[in-house]
Specification:
The complex is a heterotetramer, with two copies of chain A and two copies of chain B. By secondary structure, chain A is an alpha/beta fold. The chains are: A alpha/beta, B alpha/beta. Bound molecules: cobalamin (2 copies). One cobalamin sits at the interface of chains A and B.
């Protein structure tokens, strides 16, 4: 039996896209994770508070609506200040306004301190595999 | 305040107006008399209500994109392009998400950052920040009626500024711009705030200026059964009519099954007119809009063209008054103007090519219509029952009770107990009817439809079906068959 | 020679074969026994007859492009791309126009010029010049069945070489590859030459190798009423069956009116099976193909996507076994492989998305089917009457008499007396029935349909309607309304 | 009343596209020209023979099927040899295989001696106006 890892997840900013969030929650639970789903319209502070309270192993940020770039700025730094220096940050969805080559988007978000950045349409299986690897869970 | 579906008292309206216009500095430039004069100078062919009424009479299906960027000149260029290259019959101005949340300061930052970056960092046009004059500049730059499209729970300031700014149509409603677009805002609050918007438009009507109002039909855009969106559309039409709105477009998001979609558009018009009539609003012009597939799109642009074209064909065959057009970039991000025009042109080709064909009223179509009618009547009548005859009160109690329930909605004021899934032919049915006030007959109908599919797919009825259906169109199917 | 619909005598066949194989040097490499062995080594999933039979059983609609370039490696690249990026279920090899006219020397020049120019100067793949081995190379390079598509009045050498070259399907027929594709070639000659092709395939069948045969459905691709193309399809099926062909795909070019198109595909299958049965051919597998709009296309690519998608939707709703796909570049020229794949992907999206929906058999659809059945039976039965029971003789006499007549055909052996035009709903009707052997009832039906349109358009019935209809789709309409 | 001008027209080579040809014939006749329509699959020699026999004022060549480049080569020279030095040659349709920028196509055919070259989709009105101008007919 694997030790259960805890994920904090939610959709950042003023973003209300709820469908992917519900599906991801379902998929992560099926894959054996403990999931703290903050739903949509989550502020940076809410992620951090939940991560501390639940001693989470990773924070998964979704942004679909195009303001991801502005909404995600500073999250890494705030985590570090709150003592979450080692917590991995994942981000996925439609991260910027418009269709930008994914390499640029990835670079931008990695510079902002996200470990993993996912393009639109990434199936849950991919993230689950990455999570298991990164968090040392054997699949 | 005690919420009732009653015309807002003039004094209360005035009092709220003073507060609203102070929410952001641009509010002070709103002047009603000046706005009425301004509207009266707008040529008829640029007035939304007009064009829709004409299209309804002639049986035309008009096409309209979604579009909005942060800066005024870029936005004008965009609309020009969609009008000229895209052959749009009606234009939009889609508002950015910060404005929708009344976060005008963040919108202001977005404007500044966009100027610096040389590209739009906002996902829409921040009309409040730009103010009345710049809105008029936008409207004067084009030859086609322009609608404000958004998703704003509290749209009072936005309405004041954009209508004074010369826009002739305004999307939204106290339910349809809350449940899919908010998390923590109560329905009391949004219905009340939208009574204000509707009353504002009623006052314009009384001054001889007709502004088109469109409840947002597709809701969450994802497997919403027609009876749910129809019920919301009817209630919002009644609420709007009470405040004096006279020109209403009710909407529906394409589900993908031809018969169900045609039945939905036909019953939507029928039922809305019926209920308006029944509750004493007899001089309302009701038109319909079909939204091309509102759920997740295929990433591939050619495949997206297929989805777009199918929506266009269905709009024409159903005889919708207008169709809201997606773009081949839908799955990727806010489209370029070129991609937007491409979606429009594919749609234009089909609505004109199929203009002379209508889906014949067959036995199957009639059955489908009868189901939708029966379902919708159960919900709407129950709303009135719960509200002791008041649609506003009833709506709030109905959402509490799950008597009306929107699938996958983010709002905590939505019960979220129903589960939709497709039947074996792709029509959206209910795998779980939750607390919808359906007769045993209707509940059995849904169960049987889903079980028929389960038997065909040799699996049990389960949530996995729903997930498979959500991903299906992105993967080229309508029904999410097991792999 | 006296033409009869009778199985070609073995000796005569052999004698012709010797001549045919000498028409171009590559003919000498054809070896029947070797070819049979070769075919037997082809995996089932690469055999056309097989895949069609399976699709028919499962109710799938397969998608197939048109494509061919001058040089072998480029052609292989093209097919690879269409198979992998375009998700084609079936592949084509479209033959160039010189080869179609048996002008092998000019085709040879085209190959050389193409090599020099670094781009294809031929509008297709010159299979005769390339010969058996290179044809096999093409077939071996892909994982999907490949059909020879052309338009060759005398396709005997082409058939010998391509079938020995491993292709598993062959398009055409003595009528359908003459009347739209030639000017001065008599029907006696082409029917006779196609009896040879059909007999060749019959001989392969007898050796256990099933080659699919497809009469060319759309004819001139321009306002061809279903009864005309159905009659040709039925006669060619009978001619092919007599020579031993067992796997036949009958085709129809989309006209644009949903009901008429669905009725056409359904009756095509029905009637072909009926007549084959009636004349004693009881073991033939009949499948259908819908050709997406075959007339002039819009220049704009997004609009072309609309037209393509509508064809895809109709194929699915009608339940055609396969659909031949156009490309967004249709109006411009032979498409790039990318454009070709785009047409395929839009089509794939729709045939899979609509896989679970069929147009219900309604009263209106039944009426439309009954009209097509009555019209087609009048023509086909008259052909048998004129031929004193012989389909081949009857066909020739029928064309002479205008009893069967293809609109806008270049051949001088076609009467060219009928004039098609659209009715008020876009269905193709006859403005002038020429000498078609129709009952008064049918003639009146057509007249009334056209007059209904004329009244609506407030103009007289005239040739201008026909011209307007020809241009219409290119201009975004189906019915060519007066400006 | 205008003096009636004679046009020889047809579709060149092994090309059987008949629809445009029929429509052009109708349009030219409506516009008052005398039309000698050779139909489809016309050889260079047939155009020249017909032009001489009818003392034609212009030859209009169509090519739709993609082999126009090869089929049209030498027509100008053959006309000149046959004494038709001054006869204008028009060409239109889908002149080359594939989608080539029209300027290139036009250049190529002008070099081959055609006075006017028309892109796909040119409406008959345009050609009629040009013909009237070139042949000195007042519209
Ligand atoms: C349905 C939908 C809506 C619904 C949402 C209803 C609701 N409350 O949920 C409605 C109609 C309300 C809506 C509104 C808006 N939308 Co919207 N919407 C969509 C649409 C069509 C589908 C989204 C969806 O549900 N997909 C299905 C789910 C299963 O997929 P998903 O959301 O992509 O999530 C998956 C993956 O992305 C991934 N993933 C997501 N997050 C993360 C995070 C991590 C860490 C990982 C590993 C993976 C991952 O896994 C998920 C599950 O598989 C998309 C376009 C599309 N994708 O086709 C646009 C889209 C997201 N919307 C967009 C926009 C702009 C808006 C609006 C601003 C304006 C508008 N067009 O009306 C408003 C915004 C409102 C707001 N404040 O947020 C844009 C975003 C543009 C951009 N980024 O450049 C899109 C891309 C459409 C477009 N091309 O313009 N929308
Ligand atoms: C119908 C059609 C057919 C029918 C023709 C029936 C018949 N006998 O007439 C059939 C199915 C038989 C056919 C066959 C073929 N076709 Co075809 N066909 C078409 C199609 C779809 C429409 C043509 C048409 O009728 N248009 C309507 C008329 C009114 O317009 P038009 O022909 O363009 O003519 C107008 C103008 O061009 C202009 N014009 C024309 N000539 C001239 C001359 C002058 C001087 C002027 C001023 C103007 C002018 O005025 C005309 C009237 O408005 C076109 C694509 C398209 N345009 O959408 C392809 C197209 C022409 N065909 C094409 C090809 C390749 C073929 C085939 C080789 C292979 C095939 N795809 O099957 C064979 C060739 C057979 C042969 N030997 O010629 C290609 C040509 C490619 C290229 N040039 O790069 C096209 C463009 C399709 C494509 N994109 O691949 N075809």
């Amino acid at each position: 039996m694997m030790s259960q890892k805890t994920l904090v997840m939610g959709v950042i900013g003023a973003d209300v896209h709820a469908i992917g969030n519900k599906i991801l929650e379902y998929a992560f639970k099926q894959a054996g994770f403990k999931v703290v789903n903050l739903g949509v319209m989550v502020s940076q502070e809410e992620y951090i508070k939940a991560a501390i309270e639940t001693a989470a192993d990773a924070i998964l940020v979704s942004s679909l609506y195009g303001h991801g770039e502005m909404d995600c700025r500073g999250l890494r730094e705030k985590c570090d200040e709150a003592g979450l220096e080692n917590i991995p940050l994942y981000v996925g969805g439609n991260l910027v306004v418009g269709k930008t080559p994914f390499e640029e988007v990835e670079k931008k978000f990695k510079e902002m301190g996200f470990q993993r950045v996912y393009p639109p349409g990434t199936p849950p299986e991919v993230t689950i595999a990455d999570l298991k690897k990164d968090l040392g869970v054997d699949g | 305040m005690e919420l009732k579906n009653k015309k807002l008292d003039e004094n209360i309206f005035k009092q709220i107006q003073r507060e609203v216009l102070q929410q952001w500095p641009t509010g002070k430039d709103v002047n009603f008399d000046d706005a009425v004069n301004y509207h009266k100078s707008i040529p008829a062919k640029k007035v939304f209500s007009n064009q829709l009424k004409k299209a309804k009479q002639k049986g035309d299906t008009l096409i309209q994109p979604r579009a909005g960027v942060a800066l005024v000149n870029e936005h004008i260029q965009l609309l020009h392009y969609l009008e000229q290259q895209g052959e749009a019959d009606l234009l939009p101005t889609t508002i950015d998400s910060y404005t929708r949340q009344n976060r005008y300061q963040e919108a202001e930052n977005g404007i500044i950052e966009s100027k610096n970056a040389g590209r739009s960092l906002l996902n829409g046009f921040p009309a409040v920040n730009h103010g009345v004059e710049l809105c008029r500049k936008v409207n004067e730059a084009v030859n086609t009626p322009v609608q404000v499209r958004h998703g704003t729970p509290d749209a009072r300031l936005l309405a004041e500024i954009t209508i004074a700014g010369g826009f002739t149509a305004f999307e939204g409603g106290g339910i349809s711009y809350n449940i899919p677009y908010a998390k923590n805002v109560s329905l009391e609050k949004t219905i009340y705030d939208w009574q204000y918007v509707d009353r504002l438009i009623g006052i314009y009507e009384e001054a001889g200026v007709s502004i088109n109002r469109e409840p947002f039909g597709p809701l969450t855009g994802t497997l919403v059964p027609p009876c749910i969106s129809h019920s919301v559309a009817i209630i919002e039409s009644l609420l709007a009519a009470e405040q004096g709105v006279k020109n209403i477009t009710v909407g529906y998001g394409q589900c993908g099954n031809l018969l169900q979609d045609v039945a939905a558009i036909r019953t939507l018009e029928l039922l809305t007119e019926e209920y308006l009539e029944k509750y004493g609003y007899t001089d309302i012009v009701v038109t319909t809009v079909l939204h091309q597939w509102m759920g997740g799109f295929p990433q591939d642009e050619a495949k997206a063209f297929g989805v777009i074209s199918w929506g266009a064909a269905v709009a024409a065959l159903a005889g919708a008054t207008k169709v809201i057009v997606k773009t081949p970039r839908e799955a990727m991000g806010v489209p370029t103007k070129e991609a937007n025009a491409e979606g429009l042109k594919a749609t234009k080709q089909l609505v004109t090519m199929l203009a002379d064909q209508r889906m014949p009223l067959t036995h199957e179509l009639e059955n489908e219509m009868n189901i939708i009618i029966a379902e919708t009547r159960s919900i709407v009548d129950k709303i009135f029952e719960l509200g002791e005859g008041d649609a506003a009160v009833g709506a709030i109690r109905a959402f509490e009770a799950g008597v009306i329930d929107v699938p996958f909605a983010p709002s905590k004021y939505n019960a979220g107990e129903i589960l939709p899934a497709r039947d074996n032919y792709g029509a959206v049915r209910l795998l779980d009817c939750g607390n919808l006030p359906f007769s045993k007959e209707i509940i059995d109908f849904h169960r049987e439809k889903i079980e028929e599919r389960a038997r065909y797919e040799k699996r049990n009825v389960s949530f996995q079906m729903v997930i498979d259906d959500i991903y299906a169109i992105g993967k080229g199917r309508l029904v999410g068959r097991p792999r």
